[in-house]
Write the structure tokens for this entry.
Amino acid sequence: MGGGGAGPTIRMASSGAHGAGGVACCFCRCCTCIHVEFLKTLPGMVKVAEAVISSLIQYLLINYGLRYSATIGSAYESALTTCSACFLNSAVLLACYIVSEKSYRLIRSSLFELMFNALASFLYLSSASYLAFATKMFLWGQYLLTPGFDVYPAMSAAYMLCGLVGVIHGADAYYSYQHYKGGR
């Protein structure tokens, strides 16, 4: 019922409880090692958005672009590599932050979070522009000539989502920098 474990807690603006972790279940708290309230914070929502959008991009690239990877060229490989690496890292960070608030405090205020997000932003934005160029150059003609050619819209969505998640990682890098410098 009370407590929530030893150690300091993340103070959430939206939580009215005493910072207790876990899941409210009837009249008690279950799984107090899980800090679901992290997902209600701005960094939590940003990490979830990064992981979800990255998985969607990866789905589009693998299910629609793999057959045409030779046609698209190295832009496809660049986007898939960027997406896979950043998705894995964002998902691991998200899992760590949900399971351990101590991990959140230590990693979020470290240089790692700042460097990862800045690099992810650069990689996503550069692979988005490269994939956009290759998609327009190599798939547009086939899209106009072939009825039901769904690769062009899928790759277009993939490069637009790459741009979006690149901007999100850029904003996360900025917030990480503020956190790193203690401006938060």
